[in-house]
Amino acid sequence: MQPVATPPASQPSAVRASAAGHADAPAVEFRRISKAFGAVQANADVSFAIRAGTIHGVIGENGAGKSTLMSILYGYYQADSGDLVIKGQPRTIRTSMDAMRLGIGMVHQHFMLVDTMTVLDNVMLGNEGAFRLAPRRAAVLQELRDICARYRLDVDPLALVHDLSVGAQQRVEILKQIHRSADILILDEPTAVLTAQETASLFEILRLFKAQGKTIILITHKLQEIMDITDDVTVMRAGRVVGAVRTQDTSREQLATMMVGRPLQSELPRAPYAPGAEVLKVSGLNLTDANGVRLLSDIDLTLRAGEIVAIAGVSGNGQSELLEILSGMRLPTSGQLDFLGRALPFAGRAHADGLPAAFRKLGMAHVPEDRLRDGVIKDFSVMQNTVFGYQDGMTNRWGLLDLRAIARRCAGLLQAFDVRPNNPDLRIGLLSGGNQQKVVIAREVAAAPKLMLVGQPTRGVDIGTIESIHTELLRLRDEGVAILLSSVELEEVRALADRIVVMSGGRITGELPVDEFDTTRIGLLMGGMHTS
Amino acid sequence: MTKTDLPRWATGFVLPLLNLLSALLVAALVIRLLGESPIESLTILVNSAIVNPEGLAYTLFYASTFVFTGLAVSVAMQAGLFNIGAEGQMYVGGLGLTIAMLAFDAHLPGWLLIPAGMLGAALFGALWAFLPGWLQAKRGSHVVVTTIMFNFIAASLMNFIIVKYLIPEGQQNPASRVFADGAALPLLSTWFPQLGDTPLNIALPLAVVALAAYGILVWRSSWGYRLRATGLNARAAHYAGVRISRTIVVTMLISGALAGFAAVNSVLGSTHYLSLNFPAGAGFVGIAIALMGRQHPVGIFLSSVLFGALIQGGFDLSLEKPNIPQETFIFIQGLIILFCGAMENLYAPALRRLLGAARPRHATTKEPA
User: Fold this and answer.
1) Is the pTM for the entire model greater than 0.90?
2) Please, where are the H alpha helices in A191-316?
3) How many CB pairs under 8 A join A and B?
């Protein structure tokens, strides 16, 4: 953890720093930055400049070195070689405190806020000034109100952070940086947690910053955002800069090709839609939590062999709970589940202990939406994780794990799914997100399921891997597996689904076949508007 | 960044060794302050605990008990449970053993009597661990709190039972009657006369068997796989179909049985009667052993021998050096727990830097972050 670092309260030092800089010098210039972790070259000879007063996109797949580079700029890491030039002056940034003093602020993907404190207290934290809080609180409150008005940041400084929506919490992070006089703002995957509307309003704020002369560095892997808002783009791949262009001179396709290093297929091949027998039937499913909050209401759903049904919805509208119930991880409050024409054996149970194993035996597989929380044991090796959930079928006649058979099976899976590095003994926590996901999917596919539950299959996964995961899911569908997919990415829903079910507030608000895909209509359904 | 990015030989041997040396260094300082020579004291300690065959026998005798309490704590740790209650479980295990003896030692031959005693010890130890395990699994009562409380309950309960029921009439000593001769564990000195008149007995080979069984069970069986998965990430284990509640209860039963079994060496191997407070902290030493041995069979064995040597050597040291009280052992034990448990990663950053400097491009296969 980094210590909470602050500039002195009385004198905003960033002003000093920028005053020392050259007027039309780039805000940030990376000169031949290299950084290695062990044998891995995270950044190799990275050089590019970020023009002051622009929005500069940095894109690349997971593991391309974007985060490492920003961590160097923000003082979390030191470069092995190369120079940082900030506003025309070569600078050494050893800690985040140094970075802040130079006017660099960072909004992390995971917010650094104390939930139970007000926005005002969060901004003041580590920046309290004198022993008595009251006078400074009054002053800071006024400053925050001014900033909010100036940048149209719709945040109540006296609200408690945990009462705020995710989008508002992000604005608090931005507010914090602005209040600390940051004029170079790094945003790390800022839209990963936002709805479409929240993203739009974030971009409004960023444009306003730009108009006020601030520089914004936007780290993302979403190409549409780059096209929508940035002035310049730097594309990274495998630790190197592989492209630096003006946004107006490029296209999504060109950027994607640069990012992945090869052209992507726009439309993946799939057999014509020919659903088979009913595999899963959900009727009247309800879930109420211990506090009496209704998480799922009257869910009815059917799923046939050879089709992909995608659940679309803003994260947190009951999709996670639905998948948990269907996979046996959680018991519903009421309702009926039929799998291949037979009722699933959860009636009369007091808890779901061991139920996932029973469901798995019936022919269900589950790719959980949060692989590190549910899908793998981080400290187990890749090989051990390839039998996770199937360990009991992997014993020899002594009742011990058949290590030779497990190794053979693992080698086959790693080969078939192109897991990199192809090293079964590596702790899976050391693999990139995409490769971890490949291991999980390989494992679940190897069980030859009749029903596959898939939650957010490409969250935190790079574009090249997304393509191979999508191809695999479509292949399973063509082979007659019934797939229930939950995704917050509409692009993914469109690319994979045969039918789309939209959830909002724990209910199904609408259903449509994929050839009637319509972003506006789905957006309305996601917002809770019912259609019949 | 954690200790896990260091190679295994470093976390497994170098770090524990550095921690141990630090503890001994502080102990040496205190011995110096007491007015004795640390070097001379260490020589006495090593001579009496390791070099002298009879001393070594005592060291291994103590170690045999510690292996079982160390295993008890370790197996629970694999499931993410911190069983502080090995002391109480061992104590109550002693009661199970004693009941078996008092009931059968007049009728059964030794080769049946001893297994009966072992069974009684393991059974009672397991029973004493069952309730904390069950409360943890079903009610979420933290096993640390309940096992600590169960230690106190065990102490009072045993006090009551021994004084009220087990003291033979006309005796003052708060202990049960002496068991029949057939109940004594076969001594290793029967086969190795150079061990002299020492209580080292077949509990030592049994301890080695238990270590091997533990290693196989935890790392080679699917049960062990589920156990470790539960300990590392209970939510994911639930996803994988592991019955978490049952795993917790079964693990605590095994842990308690092992702790209870530790009573066999102490009671059947040496005193041959049940006495007040006979575990004398062996259950707590088990915690230190599990931490220091990193729940690995070899580590548990080595740590057990170390603690056995400290008791044996410390005892002789206090005889030879009146300035050094016998409590010094408890003090050194505390230091070792402090350095190996609470501050186990004290030297990890320095070691990582040292290794990093020696091999700046050592081969890892990690993808770029």
Assistant:
1) no
2) 196-211, 223-229, 252-260
3) 125
